[in-house]
Amino acid sequence: MRIVQVTDAHLHADPAAHSRTGIPLKQFNAVIDAVKAQHPDLVIVTGDISQDETSTSYTHAVEQLGALPCPWFWLPGNHDQADLMEAEHPLLEEVDLDDWRMLLLNTQVPGQPYGELGPDKLAAMTKRLEADTRPTLIAMHHPPVEVGASWMDAIGLNDREAFWQVLSTYPHVKLIVFGHAHQAFAQAYAMGEGQVGVYGCPATSDQFLPGAKAFAVDEASRPGYRVIELDGGQWHTWVERIDL
């Protein structure tokens, strides 16, 4: 099974609106066109679809995502309005991937740049992990690990220790993908006797400078997406960039 991750579009109602380095809708459309050529079985969009929190910004996204040759799913980021997303396309908590399953976690704290699950969502995640021991992919917006950029690490997942404490008893969690960081990232997170693959993804909009102590845009980098191939209990993943 081939899954493509797309993230951090930061779209506006105005299709010609600019970001720091480009036009978000133009870049989003170019990424989606490139994704189509990958012939994915499924696409997951890991948050920050909108920048201006308007219904029209989500309509722009759905127009492009709806043209994909496969099912697609999304979850909210810190910039999103979940009710406006739900009005355009369902927000699901779990997707059946045949031999695998995918959990979609909402880490949004309304009005805050950082993320958090909290006791109730952690308990719900625990219940779902107990109910099914197939290899599991978790998709979320906020990074559950430090990515090495001080300012970004300060606005990642606040309760990451509690998150990993839950996962420590469920070795069938194999893979985690996140957005928010606007950069490629890969880490093998040691958990018990095994490892969990933790991956970040380039944004379709601006790219952030890896390793920066303060906010900085990476003007030399390009928009992109992540490809994930699931094969039995194993996976292979890589990042693709696009030319504008």
UniProtKB/TrEMBL annotation:
Pfam families listed in its UniProt record: Metallophos
Domain Calcineurin-like phosphoesterase positions: 1-183
Organism field: Vreelandella salicampi
GO molecular function, one term: hydrolase activity
The name this protein goes by in its record: Metallophosphoesterase
Entry's family note: Belongs to the cyclic nucleotide phosphodiesterase class-III family.
Keyword tags: Hydrolase, Iron, Metal-binding
